Amino acid sequence: MCYGIIRGFCFLILLLNSLPGCEKDRQLQRVQFNGNAQGTTYQVIYLSEEGASFQQEMEEALAAIDRSLSLYLPGSLINQFNGSDRGIKMDRYFREVVRKGQEVSELSDGAFDLTVKPLVDAWGFGEKRHTQVPDSSYVEELLQAVDYRLIGIKGDSLVKKHPGVRIDANGIAQGYTLDVLAGLLEEKNITDYLIELGGEIRVKGRNEAGRAWRIGIEAPPQAKDESDGENAPALLSRLISVSGKGLSTSGNYRKFFESGGKHYAHTIDPRTGYPVQNQLISVTVVAPDCITADAWDNAFMVLGIPASFEKLEGLPGVEAFFIYYDAQGRVRDTSTAGFQDFYLN
């Protein structure tokens, strides 16, 4: 997710029809359920010989993750950390998210940064929303406490090197949550599933007809081909199929405000303190797990296309699809060569 609170704007949608394929050798039952979690919705689809529902176990896991990482839940570990001067003892959820966040921060040269929360709040994209542009001197002041190197893991604790450090895990927590839920299913020997949370997806295997799951990546609804005034051409709406992967999309076109004739998107560059200004509309990332996809879609939105492609060369197993405005303001797309292997159209 982009730095903010709710990820409901993501472009990934489920297409539950099937590709031609072979029927399963054994009879499996389709199990499907959905609910609300982390300020958005989730749905789970999987195949099981017994047809058992694991919704209660999954909702218990969702609640446990909220107690660790939710900024909306009073007393959560993340709120305890943000309110402390020195740090706190972590649980496993907190620890795994912080470790991945620090890894991506270092690899992205700070384009992804868990300590971005003071800036998110200042620009009105935190728990309390507003549309006021912060003073530049205030942004400079906040930047003194925004740097992933200002937090460190010592044993089972996360410690601060500056008392003003506050963290926001919304750019990574939903992807991590899907990995936890997928792990629960695999512990039950479920190998065919599709799990979606707020637009993020973790998928493996095939559907009940023994056919590949299909996932659509939608172009922004306002995208037009200015040459003829029609809706965006087909190249801007991709149909893909993957298995054993996590998928995450981050975008800028729904969460923003305008002030003084300027457009301020909710993706904050933690290095400068300001909303990003580049040609990107959205980034979809496919990775071996969803926490990786979730973190890097944020980083790529900040980095922009050329720098993202440079980073991708050193990220085996990570592929990306970009929708952007070209120099004439037309909507276009591009992707890594590996992402094209997922295309169905």
Report on this model:
With 345 residues, the protein is α+β, with helices and mostly antiparallel strands. The protein has one domain: ApbE-like domains (T-fold), CATH 3.10.520. Helices cover 27% and strands 26% of the residues. The strands form five sheets. It has an eight-stranded antiparallel sheet with strand order 2-3-7-8-13-16-17-18. Helix 7 (290-303) packs antiparallel against helix 8. The protein starts with 11 loop residues before the first strand and ends in a 5-residue tail after the last helix.
Provide a concise account of the structure shown.
The chain is an alpha+beta fold and 345 residues long. It contains nine helices and 18 strands. It has a single domain, classed as Roll (T-fold).
- Distance between the terminal alpha carbons, to the nearest Å? 26 Å
Low-confidence blocks of residues? 1-25, 223-236
How many individual β-strands? 18
Largest sheet: 8 strands, antiparallel
Q: Output the helix-strand order.
A: EEEHHEHHHEEHEEEEEEEEEEHHEEH
The fraction of residues in strands falls at 25-35%
**What number of domains?**
1
Instruction: Give the overall silhouette.
Output: globular
Instruction: Specify the helix fraction band.
Output: 25-40%
Oligomer: single chain
Overall pLDDT: 85
Q: Quick one: CATH class?
A: Alpha Beta
Question: Main sheet: which strands, in order across?
Answer: 2-3-7-8-13-16-17-18
CATH H-level superfamily title: ApbE-like domains
* Rg, alpha carbons: 20 Å
Number of DSSP helices? 9
Q: Could you say what the CATH topology is called?
A: T-fold
